[in-house]
Amino acid sequence: MTTLDAAQAALAAEHAAVYGYGVVGGRIGPARRAEATDAYEAHRARRDALRRTVRDLGGEPVAAAAAYELPFPVPDRAAAGRLAAVLEERVAGVYSDLVRSAEGPLRRDAAAALREAAVRAVRWRGSDVTFPGLAERATGRA
């Protein structure tokens, strides 16, 4: 995977996370709304930075979809929390690809984004995984 491909994948994941946090924020309830808002803003900032990165790498940034299919119905607060954890796990996964393919400041930024997503996933899920961002490790497929 090229650095540009990995950056485009990270951008696509950030678009999906921004959309997903719109759903989370509408269902999470007042106790965790600030946490959802902070995550939403963090993903928007990462999305905007990745647009610039993709352009700097010579690409045309992938556009956001009009809507995204959620992995499961989100009728209540508990489901909203599970969705937030899934969003963060997915974002961590694509950032792990960007860490592997990038160098220098972009690699450091991708590692920071992976770390932030992994920490948010733990907060939403209430437990951690051994290798955040490596889905095959998290699900025991390796």
> What's the architecture, going by CATH?
Up-down Bundle
Q: Tally the helices: what do you get?
A: 5
Radius of gyration: 15 Å
Low-confidence stretches: none
User: Considering DSSP H and I runs of 4 or more, what fraction of the residues is helical?
Assistant: over 70%
User: Tell me, what's the shape?
Assistant: globular
CATH topology: Ferritin
Secondary-structure class = mainly alpha
Distance between the termini: 20 Å
The structural domain count equals: 1
What would you note in describing this structure?
By secondary structure, this protein is mostly helical. It has one domain (3-138): Ferritin, core subunit, four-helix bundle (Ferritin), CATH 1.20.1260. 70% of the residues lie in helices and 0% in strands. It has five helices and no strands. It has helices at residues 3-27, 33-56, 77-101, 104-125, 135-138. It is globular and about 40 Å long. The chain starts with a helix and ends with a helix.
Topology:
Elements: H1 3-27, H2 33-56, H3 77-101, H4 104-125, H5 135-138
Summarize the structure.
This protein has five helices and no strands. With 142 residues, the chain is mainly α.
Features:
single chain; 142 residues; mainly alpha; Ferritin; 5 helices; 70% helix; 0% strand; globular
